[in-house]
Amino acid sequence: MPVINELTKVIALATSTITPNGVDDDDILARYIESRGHEYRIVVWNDPSVDWHIFDMVVIRSTWDYHHSIEEFFLWIERVSRQTTIVNCPQTIKFLVDKRYLLHFLSLGVPVVPTSIGAAGEILDFGRVCNERGWSDVIVKPAVSLGSFKVRRFAYPADRNAGQAHIDALDAYGGAVIQPFVEDLVTKGERSLIYIEGRYSHAVLRGPMTPGSETPLAQLHEASETEKSVAGQVLGALPAATIFARVDLAATPQGPLLTECEAVEPRLFFGLRPKCAEHLTDALFRRLSNVKAKINQDCRAALTSHTPSNRPAREHLKYFPQNGGYPSRPPSRTPDTLYAASGLVDDELEVN
Prior knowledge:
352 residues; alpha+beta; Rossmann fold; Dna Ligase, domain 1; D-amino Acid Aminotransferase, Chain A, domain 1; 3 domains; four-stranded parallel sheet; 11 helices; globular
């Protein structure tokens, strides 16, 4: 580990109790952070002993249990974003946690796998949806979930009662999502396109599933221009720019269809393209530079005002050297009000 000094940044890579030491992606990213002369910590997001303000940035990476306590996760995001910079920005995270975002994309003309989702608190009628949409082979999954959690396949009308029972049970997870079963995902696999700061990095083909396997194999994939075009539509429809994102597509006779947009805690497959981790590291430090410049500017502007509301910013201005530098970690007595006084909101920052 490098020796920490005032120029050393400390980045938290947020994980979960499922993977308290992080995952392979985290290890690769951590090595690039260290190669820049900075430090990292792999930290469980809901560990009550963590003092988040000591970190220059918190990067959500493998928080793969948040769907079990979504309200706590949202409160954590709000609390951490008042103390330091969180990536991706809270606005995008909250938008993508609930799969109702698929309806938003559909309304904008993005090609999406056909989807039925009820309003918040609404319990869908399994038979009615299948009848109206002409579906006989469907997938039912939670609106708020990760991976294959509580994802089940049903035939209609044979499984009408079982399908409805599953939908009823999913009310605790934000409601149910009903989609037609896409055979191409099984036979052709899923295409995952990875982007850093909105720029295409690489693509991965996950699957097709092989007999006896629980997870699909992943390999590099040469994304087509059509796939990149759909992914570009998706990223352009997000509420704010992302530092990293993954767009998952199904290859169908109708063309590529969006299955999910992952910008909360996606696996980015650094093992297949390590250079992507280097690009992400550079992007993270560019964001930190933007944050430093924003706080610097706002706190200096506060000097011209003598109103009591600006006192927190004036008090801490002494930590800003004349050359515009800002210590990597604010002193422990720096209050959260420094960020409030500066008016800093992550999703307002311009990403280079």
